[in-house]
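The following block was generated as part of the benchmark described in Methods. Ligand: S-adenosyl-L-homocysteine.
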Amino acid sequence: MQNLATQCGSLRVVGLGPGADALLTDSVRSAIAGATDAFGYFPYVERLSGLGHLTLHGSDNREELGRARSALNLAAQGRKVLMLSSGDPGVFAMASAVFEVLDDAGPEELERWVAVDIDVQPGITAMLAAAARLGAPLGHDFCAINLSDNLKPAAVIERRIQLAAQADFAMAFYNPCSKSRPEGFERALRVLRQECEPQRLICFARNVSHADETLRVVQLQDVQAEMADMRTVVIVGNSQTRQVGRYVYTPRSYGVAGSR
Ligand code: SAH
């Protein structure tokens, strides 16, 4: 008997990593090689433009749900469809959007989509690529916060930063600001200045793994809002984060576990 999932095509939700080809996983490479169509935000689709076997479906970055719906529809027709994200698809990216659309499907859509073989393939997310370049700033407990207020109120973002700082988490800020939201990172900075000591280390990693990558480590008291843009992931150290030579690291303990 023919496998219904094969007959109905597949949707591979893949992460392209932070940029460099060397940071693309082999399983994502295989998924790309075996696909017929690729959906994603224009620049991510553009990355695959040299591959003649793929039909590319680029879209704007505010069209995630429509993009997920179109990808599922094409997969249901038997195509082998890729959904592209940068970094990891589960980190502020397309994997959740695909499942939101599936969860919201009406009976007719569900009947078409239920047999699509959906598979999420991880990629190296920006904060981990940045942390590796810096040393080990996320070496103890940490959290990731998306500073975009497109999908959640600004007050929720501020509260999360405040509580994370009080709990002494290191933090990674994604989407720190954009032309349409220049105030995002400024608001985060105000909270950090209330909660953290002026010497707290803040790392700005821009275009990690690209030819124009820049890394900058600054004390909170010297941070200016312009140091972050949409191509930057910001890593806020915890109270123990320190520098050794050109590296930044967070010790694995507070010195009480006997490991230092
Ligand atoms: N899914 C992606 C994140 C998408 S949100 C991931 O896992 O990395 C987009 C944000 O990710 C950007 O605003 C920036 O904060 C961060 N980002 C993505 N690629 C980056 C890179 N190469 N260097 C620095 N930050 C990056």
